[in-house]
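Quick log. Single chain, no ligands specified.
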Amino acid sequence: MLRADPLAASLSNPPAVSLSNPPAASLSNPPAVSLSNPLEVADWDARLEACPARSFFHGAAWARVLRDTYHFVPAYLALGDPVRPTAVLPIMEVDSWLTGRRGVSLPFTDACEPLCPGADSFRRLFREALECARARRWKYLECRGGKAWFGEAPPSTSFYGHQLDLGAGEAALWSRVDGAVRRAVRKAEQSGVTVAFSQDLDAVRAFYGLLCRTRRRHGMPAQPFRFFENIHRHVLAQNQGWIVLARHGGRAVAGAVFFHGGKTAIFKFGASNAILQHLRANNLVMWEAIRWLSQRGYAVLDFGRTSLENDGLRRFKLSWGSEEHRIDYFRYSPRSAGFVTARDKSSGWHNRVFRLLPVPLSRLIGMAFYRHVA
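-> predicted structure:
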């Protein structure tokens, strides 16, 4: 399906745009729109302080992870004063011989809203993004969020999102937790499960071991370990995230990775040992993370996206007292001159195949696979 785009009706043939060395000068004015690389701007994160809706994913740390792991090229569009932009549309170019060249805002994020104070600023940035798309011959431009700005355009894919207000205090947060989950937390504590927060590489390795087996159980290949090495280098070591590990008898049995930007924390990855599921360690990991974040003044815990068909994960996130909302992605095809739809590929025949593969082979596939899917 596609729908003609009224935003692009006035665009003419775009000039050539280089992403390998994006120009610092504005592309048009007034107001000026600049094509920026946050990895070449020392104080990029500070420049986003004027954008109240910014999240961890808009910052330079995530851009470094994507660049160093997958060699994606940043092409962030900013509106207004380059020192304090009033609006930002972050984009990475994914250039794959297998899946084509396209612009994604942003790869491997659950949601990455355009940072725009109003419809006019969004239209300016989106039009410039379409010029980049045409000049670079992108298969499509994908925005992971921005429903408020796309009007009647059909989303390409939709997901559930969940957020938990951490400001109520520990007692109120505990009272909102589902009764079965509270019992699971107590069982984990009584079983001798302990939880620790860490930012070191050994914790990353322990979590990755759990993740590989969890991904196999879910019928998906594991992300390459270098992805998590770069998360350690650019995120955890820079105090922008934590690994929360549960252990039983000295053995890692469950874990989660959290990022944070401003007053919002993001639950990005979770994993557990299915054989020891009866310990309910994953419940204790989440509760201890909620307590820890609340005590340190974080306002919101974002649980990330959930496929519409994954009812089990949806119930897990709701059981903590979170509020549910819809996350919409939007894809615009320059070739079709319209918005296109896509299928959520998190479930399908491939799940059955990956469940049968040994973990080492799954890891090898993941090393080659994720660079192309973004």
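The longest strand covers residues 251-261.
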